[in-house]
Amino acid sequence: MTSGKTPQTPWMEAAQQFQQNLIHQWSQAAKSFPGATSATGQGVADPFAAFKAFMPNGAGAFGMPSMGAGMPGIGDMFNQVAGEKVTFDPAKLLEIQNTYLSEITQLMSQGLDAKPTGDRRFANEAWASNPVASFSAASYLLNARTLMAMADAVEGDPKTRTRVRFAVQQWIDASSPSNFLAFNAEAQKKAVETQGESIAKGVANMLHDMKQGHVSMTDESVFEVGKNVATTEGAVVFENELFQLIEYKPLTAKVYERPFLLVPPCINKFYILDLQPANSLIRYCAEQGHRTFVVSWRNPDDSMGDKTWDDYIEGAVIKAIGVTQDITGAKTINALGFCVGGTMLSNALAVLAARGEEPVNSATFLTTLIDFTDTGILDVFIDENFVKMRERQFAQGGLMSGRDLATTFSFLRPNDLVWNYVVGNYLKGESPPPFDLLYWNSDATNLPGPYYAWYLRQTYLENNLVKPGKTKVCGEKIDFRKVKIPVYLYGSREDHIVPIGGAYASTQVFPGKKRFVMGASGHIAGVINPPAANKRSHWIGPANKFPADVNEWIDSATEHKGSWWTDWAAWLKPLAGKQIAAPKAYGKGKSYAAIEPAPGRYVKAKA
Length: 607
Description:
The protein is of the alpha/beta class. The chain has 20 helices and 19 strands. The chain has helices at 10-32, 49-54, 74-82, 90-110, 125-128, 131-152, 158-174, 185-193, 197-212, 281-287, 309-328, 340-354, 384-393, 402-410, 414-427, 436-442, 449-461, 500-504, 550-556, 565-572, and strands spanning 87-88, 154-155, 234-239, 243-248, 254-256, 260-263, 292-297, 333-338, 360-366, 399-400, 447-448, 472-473, 476-477, 487-492, 514-519, 537-540, 558-561, 579-581, 596-597. It is globular, with a radius of gyration of 26 Å. It has an 11-stranded mixed sheet with strand order 17-16-15-14-9-8-6-7-4-3-19, sandwiched between helices. It has a two-stranded antiparallel ribbon with strand order 1-2.
């Protein structure tokens, strides 16, 4: 028998350290919540304390004992989340209390025969066959239901209630017994069956992830940008300190005279649009006969820490439009913006319109926010204090870490994007299968701090872009009433980053001809939905009818099976001009000679 002072083995120390790293990441996200400081203004000593309150007693890394698991009162926890003292609906609280007493009495009467139901984390037979684990899971689910009911009973403005609900859900998800080896019956069974091999593999996986700095969602060793992702043939024909412009090889004998420029979000790598030949939107555009150009953003390093929103609009989006015109000789082009790339494209169009210029003939906006009234769950992070903190942080420049941004987005769906992999990789010793989308998702990008701070205030906090003349970009007042070109607007029905109402709101912004289409699924899967896959559905409403309320539009829309890409291609075709012979070479003369093959150097730089 060893004493409590016996030194831990190196792998045990490593395991505890890695869990602390996870806790630190969660804590950083928690500190980002407005109101994540105490009433005295002092930083919360342990934003993970609420998690510890619901952890099984003494559970540390891999279920090992941990010290100092403080347990704040439930009321204090809710106050901490809201940043102020919260009140509850008395009638709802009484109902919650009665329900809890009834269910806990029933659970206790069942004892070790209690079974967790309705949750896939506890669906494996190992849970049902282990009475202690089964009871632990059933108790956890009861506590989780009760806590969420309490969150729903909080009185206050919608933002406060949403913030409370979001944070409570985070704590509930983090504290699941399935996340700890000491309580995960499935992982314990596998450890016995493999004679400890699964634990050894789990430790190896954990040490690997500690070295790379993030939890593995896929086997990243299988993928290489330019080799088996981002493989559509093309060449870099222009570059500056912000971006490279890629021209893709035509896949048809003739191309439309009006070229096509895609502006992806600079918060991600462009190759989400070119994962594999079968699901590449870039390749699809070339197959439709469009002479296709794509902006590939540079992954910012310290030398770009002073770059602003204006720098990106003038020096990147407007510059890319101009270079595309120069290379092709076209008077106007068609353009597409995806997510934040769409917001940036809209700003560039407004700047150009204010200057009396209209080099873009039509614009497509995919899951794009321009009116930031409905921003979904991301709104929980944004208030005046939070934005001021970021403005102070980046007053002299600096970078917003891509890893921190990735952590924030992962914790929007923690069970799917965090704890699922913690359990599989470390507790069960499994290796996640190769998946191109998750490889892309793990390929983080930084942002210049001044760019990021400006964006937070002008969009999420103050929603100034849709207030004519309220804000200036590149010295010009933004007024979308001057952007009168045809626009195609797409939103995904289950999008948690750009809610369908937020995407639809752009129908009220642009005065010209427009078409709005809603696709099934989420932010990425809804967009990357090639026709050949014959998956999902899309919805189209009556022509030229765009009520202010998205729900009215949805009620009037008709479902169409399969991808929205074909509808978009049919919309774009008459706007692309006549067909001409496809070019035989990339770029144009010495001014825009091919610099290197696609996908170029910039996309390969790691955060």
